[in-house]
Design a protein that fits this description.
Helix content: 40-55%
CATH class of the largest domain: Alpha Beta
Radius of gyration: 23 Å
Order of helices and strands: HHHHEEHEHEHEHEHEHHEEEHEHHHHHH
Distance between the termini: 44 Å
Number of domains: 2
CATH topology of the largest domain: Rossmann fold
Oligomer: single chain
Strand content: 5-15%
CATH architecture of the largest domain: 3-Layer(aba) Sandwich
Shape: globular
Structural class: alpha/beta
Strand order of the largest sheet: 4-7-10-3-11
Largest sheet: 5 strands, parallel
Number of helices: 18
Number of strands: 11
């Protein structure tokens, strides 16, 4: 019952049955402290039918070779950096790789402008420190230190949002596989199976640029935006269905036509031209990522379920679309109005969406 009340289960909890079924079929060699072999990890992430007939849901829709490169990196002494524009599933992939390899995706350092060195290395229980003096018992381990001790994967989200001096505290960990504790004249050495998966998005390059020394410690895998509209629609549909079930939204699954309209708008504004290439467009300041498309459709489902008849309509999508596109209230509003008048208004079957979007601005 308690699990039913949790808003978002960790990957290893939500997909426990899939991981168990893959483990039963996994006959390939496993690196030390890995729960699954590299082959099985990729099978879990990419999905498909197992030898026993069990169907594994795909967690990443895209190039299988990219996932093979990412997983093989983690079998070496190099860390993995997942790079891409916002919304290309970097965090999602990071979580599922950690769940499949370590059985634990929670050893996470969330990068922000306020992330301190203690978040990466260790902190102190000051009450115990004052009472008993410096000791390992008074030390508060970071997720990174726990991962090193237990031979698991540590995750660092939004690496380039972390201040540069804190970023560089990773260098010794990644190169020497050890974390010095100079206050105690001791060190914590990494156990086999330990590695780091970091994520960073292209739009943040320059916020806190990584040093060359730190970059050399990572093997970088760039996660691209979906190649085709069909692929992006598939991603949005799968994630919206999963979110709708977990949030118990009282609405029907959205028709693929509505999803296609949202994805088409996002792709055209991202690319700066219409799908047929005949009309050039201005692009807004936002990223209009696949993740934002998922958010727009999910929000529309919530509106349809709670304030409509349970069926997703253009009126339910309009407010989400306006909010996603217009980040700058002046420049983006002009871009959106031009797009509505030159593209949406003239497109067959889109008059309802045009009217509802115009009402929102």
């Amino acid at each position: 019952m308690a699990g039913e009340l949790i808003l978002r289960l960790h990957a290893e909890q939500q997909f426990a049955q899939e991981l168990d079924e893959i483990r039963k079929c996994d006959k390939h060699p496993r690196p030390e402290n890995w729960k699954l072999s590299p082959w099985a990890v990729v099978a879990y992430v990419m999905g498909g039918k197992l030898d026993n007939g069990f169907e594994v849901t795909p967690k990443y829709i895209g190039s299988r070779r990219l996932m093979e490169i990412a997983v093989s990196t983690l079998t070496t002494d190099r860390a993995l950096l997942l790079l891409g524009v916002p919304g290309t599933a970097k965090t999602w992939v990071s979580e599922h790789l950690s769940a499949a390899i370590s059985g634990n995706s929670t050893l996470l350092v969330q990068g922000t402008a306020g992330t301190s060195e203690e978040s990466v290395r260790y902190g102190w229980n000051y009450a115990r420190l004052l009472a008993d003096g410096p000791s390992m018992a008074a030390l508060v381990p970071s997720p990174m230190m726990v991962a090193m001790r237990e031979g698991k994967i540590a995750r660092v989200e939004e690496l380039t949002r972390i201040p540069a001096d804190v970023q560089d505290s990773l260098i010794t960990i990644l190169s020497e596989k050890t974390l010095p504790v100079p206050e105690l004249n001791q060190e914590v050495q990494a156990t086999k199976g330990f590695s780091v998966i970091a994520t960073s998005n292209n739009r943040d390059r320059g916020v806190n640029e990584m040093s060359s020394a730190l970059k050399r410690r990572f093997n970088t895998v760039v996660l691209p935006v979906p190649d085709s509209i069909e692929e992006e629609c598939d991603i949005v549909q799968r994630r919206v269905d999963a979110l709708g079930r977990s949030l118990a939204l009282p609405a029907e699954a959205p028709a693929i036509e509505e999803i296609r309209r949202v994805v088409t708008i996002f792709r055209e504004l991202r690319d700066g031209k219409t799908a047929d290439g005949k009309t050039k467009l201005k692009s807004p300041s936002g990223t209009l990522s696949t993740a934002e498309a998922i958010s727009v459709v999910t929000n529309g489902l919530a509106l349809a379920g709670h304030f409509g008849n349970g069926k997703l309509k253009s009126a339910d999508l309009a407010s989400g679309l306006v909010g996603a596109v217009i980040k700058d209230p002046v420049q983006d509003r002009i871009v959106w109005q031009e797009y509505l008048e030159t593209v949406v208004k003239e497109r067959d079957g889109w008059k309802d969406l045009y009217r509802n979007c115009r009402e929102q601005i």
